[in-house]
Amino acid sequence: MKGRNMTRWRDPAKDPRQEPKSNLITLEGAERLRGILDHLSRVKRPALSAKVGEAAALGDRSENADYTYNKKELNRVIARIRYLTKRLDELQVVDRLPAATDKVYFGAFVTLEDEEGEEMHIRIVGHDETDTAKRWISVDAPLAKALLGKALDDEITVKAPAGDTTYIITDIAYRDPATGAR
């Protein structure tokens, strides 16, 4: 059977999309998601509803591209609002520093040095906050899991597609959620 709804079969036991995601988020990440939700529900949705109403008033909807496009966009925005509302209810906001700031925990800024002496700066954040440009990795990522609970000068080994990579932790820092300062 062929069709656009056919997808590749994946073994549920090995499918990374089926792994449970942590529900942790930093305070600034939660504020950013709330801002997006507020913008979508107070600005974007009413504007799209008005566009759909104007396009519907023009008559025949079956050949009205403006109506079709804006209706699809409105449905996408409504689905995103529904998802964000549900997701924000599930999330646990981490709004304080850990008791031991000399070890790597959620929210840490970590500097790693690999075998060639190259440094890499990362931050461990929630699944909803990951950003490759900033090098913010999910707490569920293999590198983050290997780092959690480790201290300064500890050596970790992470399995990568190109082979095992060893890192040494050279710096650990945290941003104070109340002030935003490191």
The percent range for strand residues is 15-25%
Number of strands: 7
Q: Encode the helix/strand succession as letters.
A: EHHEEEEHEE
Tally of DSSP helical segments: 3
Shape: elongated
Distance between the termini: 57 Å
Spans of at least 5 consecutive residues with low confidence: none
What's the mean pLDDT score? 88
Helix coverage percent: 25-40%
Helix/strand class: alpha/beta
Strand order of the largest sheet: 5-4-3-7-6
Rg, nearest Å: 22 Å
Major β-sheet annotation: 5 strands, mixed
Fold and architecture overview:
- This protein is α/β, with parallel strands linked by helices and 182 residues long.
- Helices cover 35% and strands 21% of the residues.
- It has three helices and seven strands; from the N terminus they run βααββββαββ.
- The chain has a five-stranded mixed β-sheet.
- A hairpin with a 4-residue loop joins strand 3 and strand 4 (119-125).
- The longest helix has 31 residues, at 27-57.
- The chain is elongated and about 70 Å long.
- It starts with 23 loop residues before the first strand and ends in a 9-residue tail after the last strand.
Question: What's the layout of helices and strands?
Answer:
Elements: E1 24-26, H1 27-57, H2 65-90, E2 92-94, E3 109-114, E4 119-125, E5 136-138, H3 142-147, E6 155-160, E7 163-173
Parallel strand pairs: 1-2, 4-5
Antiparallel strand pairs: 3-4, 3-7, 6-7
